[in-house]
Amino acid sequence: MFENVKELGLAFLAVATVFVLLEWAISSKRKNNLYSQKDTFCNLATLVIGRLSQPAFIAYVYGSLKFLQSLALFKIPDSEWTTVVAFVLTDFFYYWEHRFSHSLKPLWILHETHHSSKHFNFTTSFRLPWLGRLVAPIFFGPMVLFGFKPEQLVLFFSLNLMYQFFLHTKLIAKLGALEGIFNTPSAHRVHHGRNAIYLDKNFGGVLMIWDRVFGTYQAETEQPEFGLRSNFSSNNPFVIQFHSFPMYCWVTGRWNALRNQIVISLMLVLSSFVFMCNRVESQEETPLPNCPIQGHVQIDETSGPSLLGKWKGHIFEFRRHPTVSIDAQEGSKLDGTYKGVLGKFPLTGLLHEDNSTVTFYVDFTSAKILRLLFRKHSGSLVAIMEGKLIGNTISGTACLPDISDKEVHFSASKEDAE
Question: Which of 37, 105, 144, 415 is the most buried (most CB within 10 A)?
Answer without folding.
Answer: 144
